[in-house]
Structures are given as structure tokens and as C-alpha cells.
């Protein structure tokens, strides 16, 4: 799909766009099933990158204290709790520019242990070398998460410590090693619709497109560059219907991908989430915290699913 075709989708009348997206969705997925994923910060804070949205950056004054990499046993206990609560996917995130080789043994132990529970595994660890990608793949890691965040043109306005092509190179290494990709972006950072068009075009033209596409709404936290801009009235929240439009266009452009509602869901109304599901979103993060950001409670999710007649994806074992 070309950038012009994606732009034309964004310009469709809202009911037409959502109808089109829902039709694509039911051709590829059961529209009544939502995958539950849980995200755990396995190493928090102290990241040298200067991502303007991130509370874990050393450039932010967000009050997040740096911690060491968790022990594998503690991670596996958290994974078991997530499974007991209905999750079928367990994601592990470390606030690093890139993992050190000395950490790879423990990371691979986590992957093997989580997979043994029957959970889908995903990690986000920053940039990877070819050897590290192969080690994670050999341990059985299903997905590697490395978001593009926004368009190539807008990227430099929020991050200067890592180039856009660095991200694409890590994704290519993960794919070459045999892992599926989890890759999406963040909305509401001050980008334009054209930036959202270019982001989706960049994702959709990967061969194949990422199997998992997280769509985040910025959670502005004071002490981060974007949080301070928001507090000063210099940054507006993403328009809710524009958020739904982006979900719908992503569904049409990447029909076989899981579209995941990620950060920012805690502030979304039930009605907005319902529209996102109608437009093709079919996964959410379940749990009270996403890394360091608040998330909707599991009880609220259950009530919403009951109201909408949705059900969580079944566990395999």
C-alpha cells in the first residue's frame, strides 16, 4: 500500500473508514476475541537515550530511580501471576540503550521459563547486535519489540540519541534471526496526520509487516520533555476520533497484524475503546502498570468486555 493510498484512507468519512476496517478485521480475526498481554519492567530507569516521552531516561526529571536487572525467578513469578489472570502474552522491557553481553544468559533464562508456561514471549531491550538477536531467538523468544515511534521526519524532534535507521537495523536483525516483530508508534507527541501516514506506510511496507503493532497514546509525565510541554499548554492530546482513525488505517494497511491498544488506555473512555475494537484493535495490555505508566485495571477491562460481549483469547495450556 502506497503512502498516497494510506493518506486517502485517513481522509475517508469516519463511518466509511471504520466499516472498511471492521470488514478487513473479520476477514482475518474473530472480532469477539481480544488478546490479553502483560508488560513487566525487568530493568527500570537509568537509560542514556533522550526519548522525549520517556520517564526512564536519564535526561528526564521524573523521579524514576534506576534499578538492576531483575532475577529470573522474580520475572517468572510475575509471568505466572499474569497467566493466572488470563494473559496469553508476556512482555519484558528493560531501560537500556542496548543489553550487555553479560546479561544475555539471564535474559535467555527468562525467555525459556516464560515459554514453558505456555505464554507468548516478547522483549524490548533497545538495540541488538546480530549475536544477541540469535541468542534470543535460540532461547525461543517469539517477538522482539522495537517501536519506530513516529515518522522518519518527526523522529528527530523527539529523539536525538539514536537514529531512525538504528531502529530499522535492529528490527532487521531480529527478523533475520527468526523472531516476529512487535513494532508501532506513539500518537499525540505533536506529530501531524502526515507523520501518522508515514509511520503506517513505514510499518506496512516491511516484508512482512510486523506481526504485532502497538498503538500508544502519549502519557505526558512532568519531568519529561513532552510532559513539560503538555503541562505548559504547548502540546495537545491526540483527538480521540483521530486515534480511532489511526487504528482503522493500521488495520486496513496490515490486515494480518495484531493491533494492540497500548499506553494511554487508562485515560480512554469505554466508548473510545469500543470504537477502537470496532476499527480492528484486537489486543490490550492488562495490568495496573505499563513499565512505569498507569494502565486500566483488570476489573475495569472485565466489565468493559462484558458490556461489549467480548472475550479474552483462550490459553493454549
Structure commentary:
This protein is α/β, with parallel strands linked by helices and 317 residues long. 41% of the residues lie in helices and 16% in strands. It has helices at 3-10, 14-28, 72-84, 104-116, 130-139, 152-155, 164-177, 193-204, 225-231, 240-253, 270-278, 298-308, and strands spanning 33-43, 89-94, 120-124, 143-145, 180-182, 185-187, 212-217, 258-261, 283-285, 289-290, 293-294, 311-312. The strands form 2 sheets. Strands 1, 2, 3, 4, 5, 6, 7, 8, 9 and 12 form a 10-stranded parallel beta sheet that branches. α4 links the parallel β2 and β3. α1 crosses α8 (193-204). The longest helix has 15 residues, at 14-28. The radius of gyration is 18 Å and the shape is globular. It starts with a helix and ends in a 5-residue tail after the last strand. The model has no long low-confidence stretch (mean pLDDT 92).
Topology:
Elements: H1 3-10, H2 14-28, E1 33-43, H3 72-84, E2 89-94, H4 104-116, E3 120-124, H5 130-139, E4 143-145, H6 152-155, H7 164-177, E5 180-182, E6 185-187, H8 193-204, E7 212-217, H9 225-231, H10 240-253, E8 258-261, H11 270-278, E9 283-285, E10 289-290, E11 293-294, H12 298-308, E12 311-312
Parallel strand pairs: 1-2, 1-9, 1-12, 2-3, 3-4, 4-5, 6-7, 7-8, 8-9
Antiparallel strand pairs: 10-11
